[in-house]
Design a protein that fits this description.
This protein has 154 residues and is mainly alpha-helical. The protein has seven helices and four strands; from the N terminus they run H-E-H-H-E-H-H-E-H-E-H. Helix 6 links the parallel strand 3 and strand 4. The two termini are 34 Å apart. The mean pLDDT is 84.
Length: 154
């Protein structure tokens, strides 16, 4: 996965595309990173295409509009079909709102709830496993001389 993400960053950097990291998503990264989180944060600040974007007034308005529409359409409890907590739904709304007010066009995530809401909001969504491998990684280097020998059958 690291190779795919590194390749994506390289491609987006070469095309001068800004990579937005919404602060709610950043907090998830920092929680998962544990003690290494501060190091990740320092690196993100130094890599040119990355831009950490806050949940600001524009994003708050975007979330309010989206949540009001969601409640009007399906209700807060989604009529017994909710598979996520309301707090998680609001968190996803914040991430998408930050992306939208900063003119993002694509969201990269494996989180199904976030993916669904982002798609409903008009963003393209890409799963991390769908990212392209770097050209060298995408090609098969198969040399019969160095290929591992099959294990003997028992």
């Amino acid at each position: 996965m690291k190779e795919r993400l590194d390749h994506l960053v390289d491609v987006l950097d070469k095309s001068s595309t800004k990579i937005i990291i919404p602060t709610p998503a950043l907090s998830e990264l920092l929680v998962r990173a544990g003690n290494a989180g501060i190091g990740y944060l320092d690196r993100l600040r130094q890599i040119r295409p990355f831009k950490i974007e806050p949940f600001d007034e524009r994003a708050a308005l975007e979330v309010a509009l989206a949540i009001r529409k969601n409640i009007a359409d399906v209700g807060k409890k989604q009529k017994g079909k909710a598979t996520q907590t309301w707090a998680k739904v609001k968190f996803d709304h914040q991430i998408v709102a930050i992306a939208k007010v900063n003119n993002a066009t694509t969201l990269y995530s494996d989180d199904e709830g976030l993916r669904n809401f982002a798609e409903q909001s008009g963003l393209s969504v890409v799963r991390l496993r769908e990212l392209e491998l770097p050209p060298k990684e995408a090609q098969m280097d198969f040399d019969l001389k160095t290929a591992p020998k099959p294990a003997p059958e028992s």
